[in-house]
Amino acid sequence: MDTRTFYDELAPRYDLMYADWDASIARQGRALDALLKASLGPGPHTVLDSACGIGTQALGLAGLGHRVTGTDLSPLAAARAAREAAARGLTLPVAAADMRALPFPDASFDAVVCADNALPHLLTAEDVGAALAESRRVLRPGGLLLLSTRPYGELRRTRPASQAPYVRTGPEGRTVTFQLWHWHADGERYDVELFQLLPSGEGWSTTTSTATYWALPEEETSRYVRRAGFGEPVWHPAEDTGFHQPVLGARRPVVRTRSTE
């Protein structure tokens, strides 16, 4: 299953993977807002969420006053993000777009957010480099990239075969979500089978979606960020930020010209 199909299928039920999606929106928004303010000042800032999904991070940042635009490879996910924003009285322009070819002029944004393990869907060095180069291109000089992935340095060492089942209780009843991980022979890439068990009458209906990821450890990700022309990356541990994954921050350098007299 390709990445777009994976997220198109998940778009109607992605929120069921959270115990309280609205609480997660608020918590993740606060964590990213703090990183933005620490690097760029109080704002508000113009922010591109280049893998916005159904809006978890974009809605949180828009709710805190930032001027957020969302793009996603999945048109169904992006459309849902727009509907969720409208339902909350928030402004969130969205577009279906590939992070390797963003539909914006150079230097359009103060910050680019690429969160929630989105970059690892790109499976080659060329594609990772293209996505990071596009993020740099659309940032103004001095602008900030915030990128989050799973902690792949540890995961590459342990190569887990699954994630524990997660049970959510909501108005529709209980939903069970769990993942099986199938590591490739290269030890770097892995396939995820995502299962959701949804209440159906007196029983359950099961949906299964699959996607592939490239488990780039933190230092390798940092090297790609440097090669794309960013300044020195800094990793912010989850326990320091309150975000659910480690977050890399890196600035687009400001090119200063020497004055002549």
Automatic annotation (TrEMBL):
Domain of life (superkingdom): Bacteria
Gene3D superfamilies registered for this protein in UniProt: Vaccinia Virus protein VP39
SUPFAM superfamilies, alphabetized: S-adenosyl-L-methionine-dependent methyltransferases
Pfam families for the chain: Methyltransf_25
GO MF, one annotated term: methyltransferase activity
Xref: CDD domains: AdoMet_MTases
TM annotation in the entry: none
Name of the protein in question: Class I SAM-dependent methyltransferase
One GO BP: methylation
Record carries keyword Methyltransferase: yes
Keyword Transferase recorded: yes
Domain (Methyltransferase) ranges: 47-143
Keywords: Methyltransferase, Transferase
PANTHER family: METHYLTRANSFERASE, N6-ADENOSINE-METHYLTRANSFERASE TMT1A
